[in-house]
Specification:
The complex is a heterodimer.
Chain A: E1 5-7, E2 10-13, E3 19-24, E4 31-37, E5 44-50, E6 53-56, E7 65-69, E8 75-79, E9 88-95, E10 104-106, E11 110-114
Chain B: E1 9-13, E2 18-23, E3 31-38, E4 45-50, E5 55-56, E6 61-64, E7 70-75, E8 84-92, E9 107-112
Parallel strand pairs in B: 1-9
Antiparallel strand pairs in B: 2-7, 3-4, 3-8, 5-6, 6-7, 8-9
Classes of the chains: A mainly beta, B mainly beta.
Amino acid sequence: GAGVSQSPSNKVTEKGKDVELRCDPISGHTALYWYRQSLGQGLEFLIYFQGNSAPDKSGLPSDRFSAERTGGSVSTLTIQRTQQEDSAVYLCASSLGFSGNTEAFFGQGTRLTVV
Amino acid sequence: DAKTTQPNSMESNEEEPVHLPCNHSTISGTDYIHWYRQLPSQGPEYVIHGLTSNVNNRMASLAIAEDRKSSTLILHRATLRDAAVYYCILRDSVRAAGNKLTFGGGTRVLVKP
């Protein structure tokens, strides 16, 4: 596709269950980012990938959160034992490279609701 | 990370220009100035970016102060579709930790018909 694709677009899960959120970046984009946005709040950085490696995991809120990227393409964000405070929109972005001279393209997000 | 400061909100009339200021007094020589906007219920959208010189594209213009400590995003003729939160962000080209985009509170733009 032409843009960043995220799935599912909406996810409702019960507290304590694990969830996987998927991001398909733009083809050829080596940098991939995950953010989350709670209702009415700003964007909170979670993690980014350069290729398949994640140089900066500092934004992950707890050890229940993990992310991986395979083949330099698709990325999965996993939240284990979900809690109600995990409810938010999870956004993925990709950019062509590492340079500050490249723009990032965002997906439409996955709205996660933990009940 | 170098920080940016923006007004919380601005109002504009439809078909009039909008000037959105951003202060970044601690900007480094390798920081690019990026602008993104987020329309309601959507992911952020790239608007424009620059380093030292003013930039124009089909969406907007970016005016960068000579000392680079501030910049202004200019929407030449606001439409109702331009109502969004606009984020001014610095993106470092050198430090690995600067590769991420750090979003502040942004400026919420209201366009009145």
